[in-house]
Every structure is written in structure tokens, then in C-alpha cells.
Amino acid sequence: MREAGTLISIPVYSFVGAYLVMIVVGIIKAIVDGPGSVDEANIASHATESITLFLVLHTFSSGCTALTGVEAISNGVGIFKPPETRHARQVMVVMAAVMGLLLFGTIALTQFFGVTAHENETILSALTREIFGRTFPYYVVSLSTLAILVVAANTSFVGFPGVSSLIAQDGYMPRQLTSLGDRLVFSNGIFSLTACVAALIIIFGGDSHALIPLFAVGVFLAFTLSQTGMVVHWMRVRGPHWHLKAVINGLGAVTTAVTLVVVAASKFLDGAWIIMVLIPMVVYFFHKVHEHYQEIRPQLSLEGMPYPPAPVLPPRVVVPVSGMHRGTLRAIQFAQSISSDVTAVYIELDETRTEKFKADFEKWSGHINLVVIPSPYRSILGPLLHFLEAFDREQGDRQPAVLVLPEFIPGSWWQHLLHNQTAWLIKLAVIYQRRRHGGGRIVVDVPFHLRG
Fold first, then answer.
1. Distance between CA atoms of 208 and 450, rounded to whole angstroms?
2. Is 135 domain-assigned?
3. What angle do CA 422, 423, 424 make, to 5 degrees?
4. How many domains does the chain divide into?
5. What is the distance between the alpha carbons of residues 86 and 99, in angstroms, rounded to a whole number?
């Protein structure tokens, strides 16, 4: 953890240091050279407009996005050295001071030098070029900005897997998100986030500005919910000075709620409507996942079962065969090892091959019962499933026959495309359509691996 923190701190300190130097040099240049002039030819057509209430709200919402990220300190209080609260508070103050200095310094210099945004250049790059020109310091600031953006992008891949694992532990996201990978990280969460990020990049064409409204609405909704949750927490727990704490968190909840409304309203057409549609869908998904886990819990529980459990009868085994080969012989031998009641089923697609198959079967399989089912429409799945249902009804013991499937596995992935995958189709029908074809049927796959 300490090594990772040191590695991440390098681009952070480089960016802050380079930017502070740029601001100092910019102030000196402003004193010496005086104000710059605005290049009106490079101003975008939508860069200026009348001051209206909507413009003020839009500006306010855009500025509020700069506050996002401050929650990382409160989320990571536990990793500070004791006393954790005091150290976290000090870091918060320092961060606010640095953020304010960089923000107001940048705004003052851009206004003083008349720097405007260009279609092919960010306003920060234009400001750096105005101060340093195309010299070495310009590239230092640009590279440090690139490095800090890489670190900022990495924070999601650090935070999301941990948060998703906690939600999954409560049963509102798939259990796979709680599993640690070989590198002791939540790999499934990282892969899931990667897929979502790739989809957003493709959909929005890599335009980060188009993603800001989605980000802002989600962040301030989370702020509002967390502050409201703290108010409820203080009202339940009480404790020393709980009234003051509840008032502070309540004020925070109101402030962030107002900001949320402003952001949602001012950036609605810019893409905020997307997140306003997605959030209810995600909440509904969480609800359905939790509902599923609640439904299967009593089904898997041992409570209410008679003890000792009823003995299991010796199984009846059915082996579908399409011809006699080493894979078929191995499946038949395995079936004989687990049961004395084994039935082989051959779906006859071409009657000219049946006699040859019967002769080979009798030679290699011994005295196993063989059932030949004609299939004039060359269907394998339907006749086999009908046979299994009739076979279970004839026995009358309410114990579905065990299905042993011979399946050969090609040596290369592309060789799978050269085979008909009959065993896979049978498993798909028997296992995943269990309500129709026997909910208690056991399917045993006997693989025979082929050399590539």
C-alpha cells in the first residue's frame, strides 16, 4: 500500500508543483508585460452569450463538478495514521487551499491574458502556451497534466471494485464481485468497469466533456444521499453534540440537493437525462438481484429437512450414443461403474447405418440394453427428451434417470466450430429447461480430449 501511494504521489506532486510555478511565472509576466488581448477570430460561436439565470445556473453546476473527488479523503479516513480524524481534517484543509489557489490563479490569468478556448486546444494548454510559449516548461506542464489525468482515471478502478464488493456482500449485486483474483484485487469488478468505460467511450466518441453531466448528477446524488443518511444516523445513535452534527449534515444535504437540482436542470439536454433514466434502472436491477438471492436462500437451506435424509435409490443411467468410438466407450464404462441399470439410446437418422452400429455396440459394450429410436425428421433432441420422460414415467419411483453424456473436446478453440455440439444442446435442454424435462435430473459429462 505504501509503495503504491508513493508511486501515485509522484504525478500528483509534479502536477501541483508545475502548475504553481506556471501561476507564479504568469503573475510576474502579467506585472511586467501587462494584460493581453482576446483573439476574437479563435472564439467559438457559442463561447459568448447574454447573462441569464440559466447561464448562471449552468456556470454554477459546471463549477460544482470541481468539488467532486473531495469525498476520497472521507472515504479513506481509515488508512490515515492515528489520530485519523485530525490527519484527515488537515489533509482536507491543505487540499482545499491548493485547489482554491490553482482554480482562482487559473481564472485570474486566463482573464488577464484574454486566453480563450479553441476547438483543438484546451484552455489550460492555451494558458500555458501564453505564459511559456512552445518551450520546455510548456511540455513539462502538459506532461504533468497528462500524468495527473491518468491517476484520476485510475481512481475509479480502485474505488468501484471495493464498493461493488460491499454491495455484493449485502446481496444487491452478483456474488462474483466479492471474489479476489490472483493479484488479490477484485478482478471481476475491474473487468465490469472496463466494459462500461469502453462502452461510454464508444457511445460518446471519446468526448470527456459529454460525460461530465452524467458524472455530476451521479456524484451529487450520492452526496445528497450520504448526507441525509448521516442525519438519520445521528438521530438514531444520538451521543454527544448529536444535534449539532445532525444540523451540519442536514445543511450539507440541503446544499447538495439544491446543487443536484441545478445540475440536473441546467445540464438536462447535455446528457443529464441519461443518468436520470439509468439510475432507476440500476436500482431496479439491485432490487431484482436481492430478490433472487432471497428466493434461493430457503431453497438451499437445510432447515425443515428431515434428519437423517432419505436414502438415495441406486440410479438408472441413460447414455445417448451417436456411434461407437472411444469417447462413447468411455462414457458407457463410466455409467457401468456407477449403476447396474444402464440403457443406451441411439437416435436413428440413417437406417442404413443402424445394423453396423448395433454390431459394433454389441461387440464393445457387453450386455447393456440398447434402445433405437427412429427419427424420420432427423431430430435428435426431441426424440431423446420424449424418451427420458416416458422412461421416468414407466419406473414410477419419481427419480429421474441420470443422463451420462459422452463428449469429445477438440484440441483447439476453432475446431469446436467443426462439430455439431449435440452434447451441449442436450445439456442446455435438460438442465436449463428443467421444469419441462425433470427438475431433479442429474447430468454427468464424460469428456474425451482430442489432440490438436
1. 49
2. no
3. 90
4. 1
5. 20
Question: Taking phi first (over 0 means left), then psi (-120 to 50 degrees means alpha), and beta for anything else, what does residue 196 get?
Answer: alpha
Does residue 218 contact residue 275 with C-beta atoms inside 8 Å?
A: yes
- Reduced to 3 states (helix: H, G, I; strand: E, B; else coil), residue 320 is strand
Q: Which residues make Cβ contacts (< 8 Å) with residue 119, sequence separation at least 6?
A: 44
What tens digit of pLDDT does each residue of 90-134 get?
888 888 888 889 888 998 998 888 887 777 788 888 899 989 988
Question: Which residue shows C-alpha cell 489557489?
Answer: 101
Cis peptide before 213 (omega within 30 of 0): no
46-90 pLDDT, tens digit per residue, is 555 666 776 776 676 666 666 666 766 766 676 778 888 888 888
Share of the chain above pLDDT 90, in %: 32
Evaluate whether 392 touches 401 at the Cβ level (below 8 Å).
yes
List the grid coordinates of 41. Answer: 477570430
The CA distance from 111 to 36, in Å, is 9
What is the dihedral sign for C-alpha 382, 421, 424, 313? positive
User: Could you tell me the CATH number of the domain that includes residue 419?
Assistant: 3.40.50.620
Whether cis (ω within 30° of 0) applies to the bond prior to 308 is yes
Report residue 406: phi and psi, to 5°: -75, 135
Compute the distance between CA of residue 325 and CA of residue 349 in angstroms, rounded to an integer.
18
Q: Is 383 inside any structural domain?
A: yes
Helix (H/G/I), strand (E/B), else coil: 196: helix
Output the CA–CA distances (angstroms, integers) from residue 106 to 110, 131, 255, in the order listed: 6, 12, 26
Assigned domain for 40 exists? no
Distance in angstroms (rounded) separating the CA atoms of residues 408 and 321: 12
The DSSP string of 399-417 is -PPEEEEEEEE-SSGGGGG
DSSP 372: E
The domain in which residue 376 lies consists of 316-449
Query: 427, exposed or middle or buried, with CB in 10 Å at 0-12, 13-18, 19+?
Result: middle
In contact, 104 and 26? CB cutoff 8 Å: no
The DSSP 8-state label assigned to residue 315 in this structure reads P
Question: What angle (nearest 5°) sits at the alpha carbon of residue 53, between those of residues 50 and 56?
Answer: 80
pTM of the model as a whole: 0.70
Q: Is residue 355 part of a domain?
A: yes
